[in-house]
Here is the input.
Amino acid sequence: MSKKSNQLNSYVKYSSIAFQMGLTVFGGTYLGVMLDEYLKWGFPIFTILFSIISVALAMYYSIKDFVKMGDKKTNDNNESNKTA
Here is the structure.
């Protein structure tokens, strides 16, 4: 595969991870806001709680994806070194 194609592939992977993180944080925060509006409590506890949980989940899944991509890249490099 050409270097330019690999570079484009990397941009797509990292962009999708960023998009996934944004959607996760947005979804968690939106759910918290909706729940707080429905319950009409004085303090927005669910907004705060779901925001923090969604950020933690987004970070967990992003780090998991980065590690998986790093392992794949390492395995690909090891395979190419064995054949060379």
In short: The helical segments are 3-39, 45-83. The chain has two helices and no strands. The CA atoms of residues 17 and 65 lie 8 Å apart. The longest helix spans residues 45-83.
